[in-house]
Amino acid sequence: EVHLVESGGGLVKPGGSLRLSCAASGFTFSSSPMSWVRQAPGKGLEWVSTIYWYNNTTTYAEPVKGRFTISTDNAKSTLYLQMNTLKSEDTAVYYCAKGGLASALHGPYRGQGTQVTVSS
Q1: Residue 106 has pLDDT above 90, yes or no
Q2: Calculated CA dihedral for residues 22, 27, 32, 36, nearest 10 degrees
Q3: Using one digit for the tens of pLDDT, what is the confidence trace for 66-77?
Q4: pLDDT at 21
Q5: Can you say how many angstroms the Cα of residue 27 is from the centroid of all Cα atoms in its chain?
Q6: What is the C-alpha separation between 84 and 66, in angstroms, rounded?
Q7: Residue 53: what pLDDT?
Q8: With b meaning 16 or more CB within 10 Å and e meaning fewer, what string describes 33-61?
Q9: Would strands 45-52 and 34-39 be described as parallel, antiparallel, or unpaired?
Q10: Rg of the Cα trace of the chain?
Q11: Which of 3, 15, 17, 26 shows its CA 20 to 30 Å from the CA of 89?
Q12: How far apart are CA 5 and CA 49, in angstroms?
């Protein structure tokens, strides 16, 4: 059974940084694309970033490009999202998901989420 558990969210001031983690189990982590998606208050799910295991390619949504970095530790089956220069519009619940963009947004494998609040 696929199991994804996010951590690392919290309250941070604009311009600050956070690192989210996602502990994965129940599948071969190193063989699956992994993604982060987020949901801001009153809005739908928004894709944030994906990392592809086979060539270590990373892709980012335009609003986070240059500020966020996705990475993995395959030995720990853990996905990370380093978030720098945070803005109020980054406030959302962040979810890790198994798969690429389409699977992350529409598939069944997402964690329970971690709240990120950017506010002064």
Answers
A1: yes
A2: -30
A3: 999 999 998 999
A4: 98
A5: 18
A6: 9
A7: 78
A8: bbbbbbeeeeeebebbbbbeeeeeeebbb
A9: antiparallel
A10: 13
A11: 3
A12: 17
Amino acid at 95: Y
**pLDDT score for 55:** 79
Residue 112 CB neighbours (<10 A):
10
Beta bridge partners of 47: 37
* Helix boundaries (H) for the chain: 101-106
Under 8 Å between Cβ of 111 and 39: no
As a residue count, the chain comes to: 120
Q: Which token pair is 99?
A: 């798969």
Closest CA to 17 of 26, 29, 9, 27: 9
Q: What is the DSSP letter of 110?
A: B
For residue 74, the model assigns a pLDDT of 87
Q: Would you say 56 and 69 are in contact if contact means Cβ atoms under 8 Å apart?
A: no
